[in-house]
Amino acid sequence: MSGAVAGGRREATKAANRAAILAAGRDVFAELGYGAASVRDIVRRTDLAAGTFYNYFPDKESVFRALVHDVGAEARRRVRAARQAAVTPAAFVEDAYRAYFSFIVEDAGRAAFLARNAGAIRTMFEESEAPAGIDELAADLRAAIAAGLVAELDVELCAASMVAVALELGQRLSERVPPDVEGATRFASDLFLGGIVRAA
User: Fold this and answer.
1) Can you give 79-130 as a three-state secondary structure string?
2) What are the tens digits of pLDDT across the range 78-104?
């Protein structure tokens, strides 16, 4: 076997092991909550040896942070794509909120993870994912203003408040059965569209 093939297999194994730990961690955190979950609980959900876990993560917090980051990164990607495809002020707001709320609830395991761990997730989102989302939204607002899609406004305040509303409503949405994506989208959009459209 060539070194390249062996190296490729090693990398594939490492990626699979990491994915298995993250999948197990998401299930454990969804069931037990961050505070009650342990590394042992996570390892039991995989086919890996206990020692293998520590080749990838030093503790349960690092697994949790990786899950929060993955959720945040994918949510931001979808929301940003929706904003950048918008051709009206209403679509800029509504389509982005709809993309975020749909992402929150489309996967039952993700929704359970988010609902069960809202407090711990909020802390980690506020440290990393929310600032990144605010920065991206501010950049998109500036681009929309430059393109004439949105009128001049306080970009920083608007971005911070829109993200805060998304996070708060997203948490509430993940706790509702059944979740009402369109209702949450309308509510969040109505909060901002009046000002944005009026300014335009």
Assistant:
1) HHHHHHHCCCHHHHHHHHHHHHHHHHHHCHHHHHHHHHCHHHHHHHHHHHHH
2) 999 999 999 999 999 999 999 999 999
- Token pair for residue 125? 């989102």
**146: its two tokens:** 């430059």
- 112 — alpha (psi -120 to 50), left (phi > 0) or beta? alpha
Q: Tell me the pTM.
A: 0.85
Q: Which amino acid is at 148?
A: G
Phi, psi of 6 (to 5 degrees): -60, -40
CATH of 1-58, picked from 3.40.50.300, 3.40.630.10, 1.10.10.60, 1.10.3720.10, is: 1.10.10.60
Write the CA distances from 39 to 28, 36, 69, 71, 127, integer angstroms.
10, 10, 19, 21, 23
Same fold, 1-58 and 60-199: no
Q: Which fold has domain 60-199?
A: Tetracycline Repressor; domain 2 (1.10.357)
DSSP state of 6: H
Residues 6+ apart with CB under 8 A from 111: 104, 105, 174, 179
Residue environment code for 188-197, b if the CB has 16+ CB neighbours within 10 A, otherwise e: bbeebbeebe
The pLDDT tens digits for 28-43 are 999 999 999 999 999 9
